[in-house]
């Protein structure tokens, strides 16, 4: 069953109240007293959407010295990696960071910032090390890594949330940490007293989510997004291959957004189907896929976790031994093949699918936890692991602020090389002579001519994906581009 757009969307519950260190940036566009007579002809109001503003312990990393930048949001909290050249030695001599010093990051949003917020994050420094240069021969080059700074996130304490659901427990923790809170569900069915036995708040949050439960058709994850929202997501409702493609605002290329003399902000008021494609006519836009690569981790994951896992525990209330298996969820869309359920032989699942199972003994379960506590432990883990089996990584030449983690996106992949077009357009072995080829290009009179310059739709790779991770990436000279980690459980069979 497909879910509605509203049911899939992650909605804000409370706004973040966390206070960041001031990060003042010289005004060189308004011709005001703050500009220091540094006005220029073109308006660079969006320039940090092309090259981010980075400040390390008060040291501004100039764009011509920035060799590499990565902001990753694919784990529990955002992480940053920066590599730059200390050309004049100023960073080494006066700004080399000490314990507690911060990395400050600012990335302006394309378009209207009342619709799409800029990214402004403070990071604690995990590592700062030289990776080249030095000795008076060449400039020192540094690699610095950091994680989002959230006060008290890593503080060990004894605390509890008394007789509340996991959804409400996370809301309460968000308020204490001064984080925002967002979710694509409005409640969970798991009332209990959640306890933190002198562990970090980070571990407490992860433990709550690992044992959260709404129904047998849901599984959950949680993370902190780049805007300081603790986000709880029911992931299963995102994987449907059915339903219409939603619409969103359209964007153009970074350079045009930033340096247009007529004040172009890169955003139009027109709605556009919310999809990405490598169609050549879309080059220069924020929906163009410049690179794509399939990912398959199924063998490793299946070896570690089996195809299903038995939850085993002694139920103190019922005074009985419980052993029940969790079979990871799939959609079973008509006409599509599951990609995570083992090999199909003559339309039937091969033997190991039913025999390769794992077991998880969880001790005893009493009335101090909700009724589905042990079951939820395995259900959440097994499903979250399962969706990492198959997917695709893609890169965009620019940043599209409408693309957020754990949202659904439609990707259209076309093939332009003659060899693969020949394969896609060739009749299958079981195709009746005279029937049309099952695959066609993007349109035109010569759609079945492999020698044409038009692309052929790869129907196997085309479809809805779930954005599981987002990375903002820059390699010298820039600009900032976007890399997405996509997941999928079903594919259209090739003919």
How far from one another are the termini? Answer: 26 Å
Contiguous runs where pLDDT drops below 50 for at least 5 residues:
39-44, 253-269, 431-437
Query: How would you describe the shape?
Result: globular
Helix content: 10-25%
Strand content is 35-45%
Q: Structural class, from helix and strand content?
A: mainly beta
Short note summarizing the structure:
By secondary structure, this protein is mainly beta. Among the domains are: 40-148, Thrombin, subunit H; 256-296 and 390-491, no CATH class; 298-386, no CATH class.
What are its keywords?
495 residues; mainly beta; Thrombin, subunit H; 13-stranded mixed beta sheet; 4-stranded mixed beta sheet; 9 helices
Give the helix/strand layout.
Blueprint: H1 5-8, E1 11-14, E2 53-56, E3 59-60, E4 66-73, E5 79-86, H2 90-95, E6 102-107, E7 119-134, E8 138-148, E9 156-164, H3 166-177, E10 180-183, E11 192-200, H4 201-210, E12 220-224, E13 229-234, E14 247-251, H5 254-259, E15 267-273, E16 275-277, E17 289-296, H6 298-305, E18 308-315, E19 320-326, E20 337-338, E21 344-345, E22 348-349, H7 352-355, E23 357-365, H8 373-386, E24 390-396, E25 408-412, E26 414-415, H9 418-425, E27 456-457, E28 463-475, E29 481-487, E30 490-491
Parallel strand pairs: 10-13, 16-25, 18-23
Antiparallel strand pairs: 1-10, 2-3, 2-6, 4-5, 4-28, 5-8, 6-7, 7-8, 9-11, 12-13, 14-15, 17-24, 18-19, 20-30, 21-22, 24-29, 25-28, 26-27, 28-29
Helix pairs in contact: 3-4
């Amino acid at each position: 069953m497909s879910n509605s757009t509203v049911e899939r969307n992650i909605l804000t519950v409370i706004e973040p109240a966390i206070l960041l260190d001031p990060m003042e940036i010289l005004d060189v566009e308004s011709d005001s007293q703050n500009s220091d007579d540094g006005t220029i002809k073109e308006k660079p109001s969006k320039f940090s959407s092309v090259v981010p503003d980075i400040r390390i312990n008060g040291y501004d990393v100039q764009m011509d010295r920035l060799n590499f930048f990565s902001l990753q949001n694919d784990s529990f909290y955002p992480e940053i990696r920066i590599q730059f050249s200390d050309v004049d030695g100023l960073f080494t001599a006066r700004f080399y960071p000490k314990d507690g010093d911060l990395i400050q990051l600012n990335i302006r949003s394309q378009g209207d910032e009342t619709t799409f917020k800029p990214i402004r994050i403070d990071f604690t420094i995990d590592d700062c090390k030289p990776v080249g240069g030095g000795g008076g021969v060449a400039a020192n080059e540094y690699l610095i890594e950091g994680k989002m700074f959230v006060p008290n996130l890593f503080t060990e304490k004894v605390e509890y949330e008394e007789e509340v659901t996991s959804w409400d427990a996370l809301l309460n923790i968000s308020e204490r940490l001064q984080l925002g809170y967002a979710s694509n569900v409005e409640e969970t069915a798991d009332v209990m007293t959640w306890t933190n036995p002198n562990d970090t708040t980070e571990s407490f949050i992860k433990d709550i989510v690992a044992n959260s439960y709404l129904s047998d058709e849901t599984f959950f994850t949680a993370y902190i997004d780049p805007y300081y929202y603790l986000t709880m997501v029911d992931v299963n409702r995102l994987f449907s291959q059915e339903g219409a493609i939603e619409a969103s605002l359209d964007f153009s290329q970074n350079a045009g957004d930033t340096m247009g003399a007529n004040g172009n902000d890169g955003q139009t008021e027109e709605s556009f189907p919310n999809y990405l494609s490598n169609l050549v006519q879309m080059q220069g836009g924020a929906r163009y896929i410049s690179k794509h690569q399939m990912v398959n981790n199924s063998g490793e994951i299946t070896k570690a976790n089996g195809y299903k896992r038995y939850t085993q525990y002694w139920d103190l209330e019922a005074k009985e031994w419980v052993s029940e298996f969790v079979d990871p969820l799939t959609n079973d869309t008509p006409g599509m093949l599951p990609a995570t359920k083992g090999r199909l032989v003559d339309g039937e699942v091969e033997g190991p699918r039913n025999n390769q199972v794992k077991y998880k003994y969880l001790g005893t379960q009493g009335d101090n936890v909700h009724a589905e506590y042990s079951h939820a432990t395995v259900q959440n883990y097994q499903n979250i692991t399962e969706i990492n089996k198959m997917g695709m990584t893609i890169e965009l030449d620019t940043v599209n602020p409408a693309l957020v983690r754990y949202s659904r996106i439609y990707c259209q992949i076309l093939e332009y090389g003659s060899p693969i077009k020949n394969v896609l357009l060739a009749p299958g072995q079981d195709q009746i002579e005279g029937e049309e080829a099952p695959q066609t290009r993007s349109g035109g009179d010569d759609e079945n001519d492999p020698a044409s310059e038009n692309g052929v739709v790869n129907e196997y790779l085309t479809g809805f994906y779930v954005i599981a991770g987002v990375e903002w990436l820059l390699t010298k000279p820039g600009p900032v581009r976007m890399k997405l980690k996509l997941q999928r459980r079903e594919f259209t069979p090739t003919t």
